[in-house]
Specification:
- The protein is mostly beta strands and about 220 residues long.
- The chain is about 15% helix and about 40% strand.
- The protein is built from 3 helices and 12 strands.
- It has an 8-stranded antiparallel beta barrel.
- Strand 2 and strand 3 form a beta hairpin.
- Helix 1 packs antiparallel against helix 3.
- The longest helix is centred in the middle third of the chain and has 12 residues.
- The radius of gyration is 17 Å and the shape is elongated.
- The two termini are about 30 Å apart.
Amino acid sequence: MMIRAPIASLLFAVLLVGCSPSAPSGSADTPAATPTTATAVSEGEWRLDAAESHLSFVSIKNNAVTEVHRFRELSGQVDAEGQGTLQIMLDSVDTGIGIRDQRMRDMLFDTSQFAQATARLSVDPAALRRLAQGDHQRLTTEVALDLHGISNRIPAVLRVTRLDDTTWLVTSEQPLVVDATRFGLINGIDALRQAAGLQAIGSGVPVTVSLVFTGS
């Protein structure tokens, strides 16, 4: 629990990420849905452009020090009916410090058993296609996140911008907050804290996304 280009869910998020738009306008609020992806293979299908997409999360140490991390491997799609999924490969966690990456894989995510996190949502693809180039839609929704064998829904405020005829950008207007306690990760966080000799590591993890989808 954004730009062309949080446990992060966690992580997570979340990656994240999708929405269910209402009508094509310059910026409209919409009720719930769930996040995700796009680049076309068949008619009406979108796929994630992983090279241009990013998912980052923030850790807070000793109630004072914040650090930004990311996952390097994402994949996803939205089918013709608007059912979207985003897969986050947890082994691809990148904190900038090798030993910390390995500790997160082993102690926190337990990637030998839980290799990926998955975010799901439903969108209205027809409404998104009606957006004019350069227009955006603000979406208030929920993301269904499967992480560490547990599924929970996370509130999300997303913006979908049509970049050109076949490309859409989905960004988080505000961080999605993933609560580690709701995903059975609190023991892993405590193990990380002890290994690093810290007094505290925050259990609320802000996640941000910038996801590029292409499709018809």
